[in-house]
Structure formats: C-alpha cells, structure tokens
Automatic annotation (TrEMBL):
Protein name stated in the entry: Ubiquitin-like domain-containing protein
Region (Disordered) residue spans: 268-293
InterPro entries according to UniProt: DUF7490, Ubiquitin-like_dom
Biased segments, Acidic residues type: 273-293
Ranges where the Ubiquitin-like domain occurs: 68-131
Annotated source species: Methanolobus sediminis
Amino acid sequence: MKVMNLLLFFFIFAFCVSSGCINQNLIEETPHPVITNVDVMSTPDGEEFELKVTAYMMNPLDTDTGSLSIKVKSKDPSTNLITAEHEESVGYLKAQEQSYKTISLNVPKSGEQLVVIELFEDGSLVDDSSTYVHLVSEVTEKVPNVILTDLMIETIQATNYGEDIIFEASPGLYNQGEKADKITVVVTAIVDDYTRYPGSAVAYNLGQNQKTRATVRMTVPADESYSFYVDVIVDGEVTSSAATTSSIKLHDLKLETPTTYTLVAASSPVEEMPTEEEEAVEETTTKDEEESPGFETPVFIVAMLCAMGILKRWKKDC
C-alpha cells in the first residue's frame, strides 16, 4: 500500500515539474559577457561589398572572462543562406571592463543583408546580436555626403565651484561621397525649448569612405539633463542632422571616461527612452509581477488534492 502511494505521489510530482508548474520562475540566466552595441559600415569593393562590423562588448562580472571570440555572418533574408562569415579572437575582458572589436568581411551580393554577430567564451556561445543593412551597388553622390555615426561625450572637469561642467562632445563622421575639404559640426546641448547651449568645431580633409571625429568643447550648468542635436555642414549645406534618443545628466558621468551614445537621423522618428526614474519604476513593477504567484501553485495544489482523493477512494474499495 505504501509503495503504491509513494509511486502515485512521485508520478504527480514529476508531472508538475515537467510541465513547468514548479520552480519555473526560479530559473535564472547565468551572468556572462554581453554585446552592448553593433555598428555596421559598408563600402563597395568591385563586384563585392566590404562590411566593417564593430561589436561593443562588456564584462558585467566581478571576475575576468575566459577566452573570447567574435563571429560575424551575413545572411540573405529571403533564403536564410550565409553569404559570408568570419571569426576573430578577442582575447579576454577584465572584470567590469568594456571593449570593442572591428571585423571586416566581403559580401558578394547587393540588396538587403542580415548581419549576425555572435560572442563566444571558451568556444561556447554566450550572446548574439543582429541587424539589417541595405547594400547599394555604387555611390551616386558626386559631392561630399558626410553623415553622422554616433556621439562620444567625455566630461573633463567641474568648474565655477561645481556649478558648471566642462565636457567634450565628439560626433562620429563618415564621408560616403567625394572628398570634403572642410566640415563644420554644430553640437547643441538642449535643456528645453528655451534653453540651448550651442558649440561648433571644424574637421578638414575627410576623404571618400573615411571616418573621423570632430571635438567640440563646451561648458554648461552641471545639474541639468541634456539632449543633444548635431548638424553637419559642408559647403554651406547641411548634409546630416541627428539627435540623441534620451536625456543625459553630465554630472553623473565619470570624469575623463568617454561614453558613446546612439544618434537617430532627424528625418527618422525618435523613440523617447525612459528616464532613470521611469526605468526604476518599471523595474520595480516587473519585479513585483515576477514575484507574484501565477497559476503554477493552484495547479499543483489541485493535483495533490486529486491524488489524495484517489488514494482515499482506493483505500475504501480495498
């Protein structure tokens, strides 16, 4: 009798575990190195295209990583076939360290391509990211066509008894047209519709398919949060305009530590990123939802009650 009861109890318990009723929310992902951002730049190379893929990585752990490597693949979205693939070693990342790796590979086909980036640690896949790129057979512009890639901000020092802060804003520039002899970059730090702090810098002799940065040094009040708007002017014409997607509190940035921010073209819809307070509220809400019991516990209790009822009825019949 006891053996039958034990077997029946074990069967019901195994069924609940296998169906995910127990401990489903207790499964936690093991911390590992992650890919934080990816930049892809394409250049026509004869009948092929050269892709330069830059993967930004971070080690969130308090210990050093193992041996890391990056694999980049391009796929034809219509067939899911791999059109190019390349892998390179990264070495390792120290605890809490950030780094990046640029990999070049040739793609033998124009049109839309899916670029997949995979991060391996000691031969095991730990993270991946993907993005779509559109490859055009040739550059049609006959004039300089300088576009923005990102914005790097570095705080230098506090001044005026801590009331103001000196920082450098360095927009990334890429010339996909003819050589540009002089490029004017205007960076505007924006508090609101009425409070703006502009600054400018000049870059010279940017060749076709070359990249550079123009550095603008500015001094602004330290306690405000800023969004940034960037204009690129070549030969009196604005060739590119872009803005950051969220407000940045310069006072909270670590001194002399460059931080790179994504820019969205002015013609593209900008999705507002949540502020730090909104992120904290959302994280608290998510945490409460995860900790609140769902249907797993009631299902398990009902299953156990059914098992006890079956056992009692079976005992009476015996």
